[in-house]
Structure formats: C-alpha cells, structure tokens
C-alpha cells in the first residue's frame, strides 16, 4: 500500500510541487519567528516573558492531538508488522533489524544527552495544568477553548490491545483497519493544521525563554542542535558505515555520493518521504532484488527511523534538564521503551515527531510539557538531519537485508557506487509520468 500511495503522489507532479511550496513557507515562517522571538527576548525581556501564553497555547494544541495520533499509529503499526511478517524471511529479518537499530539510536541519543547535558541553567517554568496560563482574562478564555488531553499510557495500552485483536481477526478485521486508516488521515490533517500555528507558538516560546534567561537560552539551543547534528554524523559514518563495510564490503561515503540528488531533495523539503520513489529505483539499480526493495524500503519508512529516535531522546533530556528536573536512569529507560513503541508508523508526517515527544513527556513527567515550546522553535533546524539520517538508515538497511537473504548482486553494487554504471535519470523521469 505504501508504494502505491507514494508512487501515485509522485505521478501527480503539480500536486507535489504545491505541497513542497507550502512546507517551504512553513519552514521559513518558523525560522523568521524564532529569530524575531530571540530579538524581542533580548531587546525587551519583559515583553518577551509576556508572550509566553502563545507558546503555552501551541503546546496545549499538541497535547490535544497526542492520544489520537498514538492510537492510530500503534493500531496500524501492529497491522503493518503482521503484513510484513507474513512475507516470510525478508519481512521478519527487516523488522528485527529495524527494531534493533531504532533501539540503538534511541540509546545513543540518551548517552550523548547525558554527556553534554543540553539545556543546563535555563530554569524553565514547570507546566501545571491546574494553574491558569495567565492572569489575563482574554488569554484564559482562549486557553479554555482548547480541549484537554487524554491520558497517554492508557491510550497506548488500548491501542496495543485493539491492534493485536484486529491482527488476530485476519481478513474480517481489515474493514476496521481501513476505517482507522481513514481516521488517521483526518488526525494527521488536523496535525498539519496545528503545525501552521507553529510559527506563532515558536515566537512566543522563544521570546519568553530568551526574555527570562538572555543569551544562555540561545547558547543552550545551539549546543543541542550542534550535538544532534554531530550525533547523526557519528551514527551514519561509524555505526551504519561500519555495518555496511563488515556485511557487504561497500563504502558508506560512496553510497552517500550515489544518493546525493536524493539528499538535495530531502534537504529542500525536510522530509525523507519525498525521495521514497527514487530510493526504490536506486536500490534496485544498485543490485538489490525487487522483492527485497519492495518490502524493506516502505516498511523502513515506518519502522526504521534512526534520526527521529536520536532526536526524541536528546530533546526529552534537553527539556528535563532545562526545567531543572533531570530524569533518573529508571525514567530514562522507561522513556526509551515508550519511544520504541510510540515512534512507529508516523513517518513523514509534519509534527508527528513533536507529538511523539510530547506523548513521552506526558506519560512520564507531565510537568515537563512546559518546555516543549522551546523545542518547537528549534525543531525545524533539526528536521533536515533527522530526515537525512532516516533516509540513509533505510538505504543501508536495504543493502544489508539484501546481503543476508542473498538477494543482492555485489558486483553490480560495487560497479554502480564506483560510478562505472550510472543511474539512468531518464528512466526515472519516465516512470514518474
């Protein structure tokens, strides 16, 4: 299903261009809002602190949508596991590898976060749902219009039970799964509508935190972004590169060069979804068999989100440290387990990473939600590294699983990566029209 949807999206060129343009404007708006918020926070600290309700309102909107996002993605995610596993060796091996690598990436994010302690000294104010957001009557009125959130952990348990029940029902459960898939589209459309308010939320949150702490906030956010980018580079070059060399004998840098055009596409859209059809074509050209590519790449887009995994744990540690309430080891492990489950199935949806992060914080330490507004401001700055890491992880996974199942022509792969058998862009253009 994933291939068909993306292929059909790819064939509709005008629609795709329009979507890219809209995302582009959202990206620019958030950057402009962050810069303006930081300037106001530095120049007029009192005004900056007074803008905090804008950030609180956006966090409340994110909270409102958490439970529906988690429910739909978990139920459909379990359905995807059932379908992928029935394909046999390739599906089972792919899922085992994806879960292992996502867990490793989550753990790596925790390790780096514990080493650098991002957010130290910011002293953000805890979120108290029982306390009014402001003494201003107008602000209180608008905040009261936003519905409250459903508890996350019970939602997760119900979603797991529903998912496994539908899986056990087989064919008779498919209409319900299709219905939940339709509901998920509505939920993600609402999420996209909320994301268009992100510039306002980011503006208020950044103005408030910079107004309260000055340059310390800017430095702290820069440290988190720098550490995140560095962690992603280490993960790609050393972790994925080493596995690729040991299993297939191929060079990670040659693979990165081979996928250069896709990286430019991802960088311009901040989403690895945009390059899905091209990755399928390029992985087949590099010598991996069509069945392996057809199973591994689309499944990986939901289950193999290495960049998102690193982002989730590092951002959670940033928020807890910035609020002066660092998580102990037990809480960090609990968060890691929650993120492993909750991060599945929401790939490529703008804001889904924020919703998953908010869900993890609400499930473990609800008072930490007050720091989410700052993450909203810098989320866009980290989205490229996240998408590029996810994409590279799926390209490497396809080659590894191809090798393990003896479904890859390594001579072809070496020749292609060496530049001896270039990818025919003309064929790609024909298939997309």
Automatic annotation (TrEMBL):
<keyword id="KW-0812">Transmembrane</keyword>
<keyword id="KW-0472">Membrane</keyword>
<feature type="transmembrane region" description="Helical">
    <location>
        <begin position="57"/>
        <end position="82"/>
    </location>
</feature>
<protein>
    <submittedName>
        <fullName>Aerobic C4-dicarboxylate transport protein</fullName>
    </submittedName>
</protein>
<feature type="transmembrane region" description="Helical">
    <location>
        <begin position="309"/>
        <end position="327"/>
    </location>
</feature>
<feature type="transmembrane region" description="Helical">
    <location>
        <begin position="141"/>
        <end position="166"/>
    </location>
</feature>
<feature type="transmembrane region" description="Helical">
    <location>
        <begin position="25"/>
        <end position="45"/>
    </location>
</feature>
<feature type="transmembrane region" description="Helical">
    <location>
        <begin position="94"/>
        <end position="116"/>
    </location>
</feature>
<keyword id="KW-1133">Transmembrane helix</keyword>
<dbReference type="InterPro" id="IPR036458">
    <property type="entry name" value="Na:dicarbo_symporter_sf"/>
</dbReference>
<feature type="transmembrane region" description="Helical">
    <location>
        <begin position="186"/>
        <end position="209"/>
    </location>
</feature>
<feature type="transmembrane region" description="Helical">
    <location>
        <begin position="215"/>
        <end position="240"/>
    </location>
</feature>
<dbReference type="Pfam" id="PF00375">
    <property type="entry name" value="SDF"/>
</dbReference>
<dbReference type="InterPro" id="IPR001991">
    <property type="entry name" value="Na-dicarboxylate_symporter"/>
</dbReference>
<dbReference type="InterPro" id="IPR018107">
    <property type="entry name" value="Na-dicarboxylate_symporter_CS"/>
</dbReference>
<feature type="transmembrane region" description="Helical">
    <location>
        <begin position="333"/>
        <end position="359"/>
    </location>
</feature>
<keyword id="KW-0769">Symport</keyword>
<keyword id="KW-0813">Transport</keyword>
